[in-house]
Amino acid sequence: MLIRPRLIKLVNKFTLNRNVFSVRNELALSKRKYTNSLILGLETSCDDTGCAILNKTGELLAESLHSQNLMHLRHGGIIPDIARDLHSSSVEPVVSETLQQARVTMDDIAAIAVTLKPGLPLSLVVGMKYAKHLARKYNKPIIPIHHMEAHALVARMQHNIEFPYLTLLISGGHCLLAVVEDVIQFKLLGESIDMAPGEMFDKVARRMKLRNIPEFAQMCGGQAVEVAGSRATNPHLFKLPLPLADYKDCNFSFNGLKTSVLLHLHRKEKEHQITADKLIPEVNDLCAAMLMATSRHLVHRTQRAMEFCQQNNLIPDSKKQLIVSGGVACNNYIFNALSLLCHEFNYQIYRPTPKLCTDNGVMIAWNGLEKWRRGLDIVTDLNTLDIEGNSKLGESFISKVAEARIPIKLVKIKMRC
Questions:
Q1: Beta-sheet strand order (sheet of 185-191)
Q2: pLDDT at 90
Q3: What parts of the sequence cross the membrane (predicted)?
Q4: Neighbours of 213 (CB within 10 A)
Q5: Is 349 helix (H, G, I), strand (E, B) or coil?
Q6: Cβ(189)–Cβ(397) under 8 Å?
Q7: Residue 323 in contact with residue 155, Cβ under 8 Å?
Q8: Both ends of the chain: CA-CA distance in Å?
Q9: Alpha helices of 211-328 — where are they, by DSSP H?
Q10: 3-state SS track over 355-366
Q11: Other CB atoms closer than 10 Å to residue 10's CB: what's the count?
Q12: Is 0.85 surpassed by the pTM of this model?
């Protein structure tokens, strides 16, 4: 009878030791699986602090994002000094949270991919300095990332898209058309000569006072305009011009369109004697008109880019693909208009999920992974790295497009908001 308790104790001890060994063995296997095979991406180019970790197959292990959107909405726009301070306070917690979610340490990271251009200089500096701090502390190389290249490539993470392809990048800070030939090879066909579509939406939405509608209070300008436009009862009430209609290139312009919208708004405010925080009764119709005019402009320029690519054999008939990315790509009305164009020209159209259209750490990590696989831009001399507030995308073909003077019979886009 005395032997039995001792036997049970020995069995329990053996079982405990075996379980501890099993757990340690699993952790060791986990370490061997992840060691030096992960890419950490860090994004601080504007007003979002983003971090993500991908493994060598492109699987997303974890991501974190700290958005400054609500803070900047209160100020009526992004203030660089405030953006910098918010990045500075959030970058370390965001990176730590991502590592914790992925259940890895910096020892498991092969390289750090970080946005160095283009963007707000004060914001870019925060990401660069923290990436350098991590690189020095843990002896890791840095992969410098071009923000627009990351937008152009991230759709490849979710779709089977082969090079080359045409991309339209539309956001609050950029608007451009380019041929993506490889991970670091781009031909720029056109860009905005004044402002980006997202910037126009933000400024017009603020002037329309859409934020005074509780439902729109925490929406960005583009989202508020899209929702308001979807409720239009007479979307053809306002006539807006087609920007750059007489210019046979692929550049964009939204300043004149913004001015036309604001003139209509001013006239209606005068007609209805609108005061203080009131909105004009036709605000939904005006939003719809702006959406339609913006879509027509984007379709017009993209159509010429398709024609130019056809004439110059830049994209084979077997690979006719248009990738739309950037924050404004989340706008379903605009994306549907571009989808109709692609149908007419036998193009396949893709866009990343909405979360990956806006700024995020995942696209930076993915761009870093694509470069890592090919041994491109892997930097160990950290003193050679610096930010660039302005940076063109790839090789400029803008003048060649203009010289081609390709006439366009604009595809009719029959849509309702």
A1: 348-350, 321-325, 165-170, 175-182, 185-191, 395-396
A2: 95
A3: none
A4: 15
A5: strand
A6: yes
A7: yes
A8: 85
A9: 221-229, 255-271, 283-311
A10: HHHCCCHHHHHH
A11: 10
A12: yes
The confidence score (pLDDT) of residue 415 equals 63
Residues contacting 18, CB < 8 A, separation 6+: none
* pLDDT recorded at residue 32: 36
Contact 296, 410 (CB under 8 A): yes
Pair 350, 162: CB distance under 8 Å: no
* CA–CA separation, 257 and 266 (whole Å): 14
Q: What phi and psi values does residue 109 have, to the nearest 5 degrees?
A: -85, 130
Q: At 73, which helix (H) or strand (E)?
A: helix 69-75
Q: Among candidates 63, 299, 58, which has minimal Cα distance to 155? A: 58
Q: Is the peptide bond before 197 cis (omega within 30 degrees of 0)?
A: no
Rounded to whole angstroms, the Cα distance separating 266 from 372 reads: 53
pLDDT in tens, 153-182: 999 999 999 999 999 999 999 999 999 999
Q: Running DSSP on this structure, what letter comes out for residue 319?
A: G
Strand partners of residue 117 = 146
- The residues, any chain, with a CB within 8 Å of residue 315's CB and separated by 6 or more, are 164, 165, 166, 179, 309, 321
For residue 396, give every residue at least 6 positions away whose Cβ sits within 8 Å of its Cβ, in sequence order, or none.
Answer: 188
Closest listed residue to residue 175, CA positions, set 209, 144, 198? 198
Compute the residue count for the chain: 417
The reply to whether omega before 164 is within 30° of 0 (cis) is yes
Q: Are β-strands 185-191 and 175-182 bridged in parallel, bridged antiparallel, or unpaired?
A: antiparallel
User: Nearest-CA neighbor of 305 among 160, 188, 162, 173?
Assistant: 188
- Cα–Cα dist 31/35, whole Å: 6
How many angstroms separate the Cα of 281 from the Cα of each of 37, 177, 286? Answer: 57, 36, 10
Using N-to-C axis directions, what is the helix angle for 221-229 and 332-344, rounded to 10°? 70
For residue 156, count other CB atoms closer than 10 A to its CB.
21
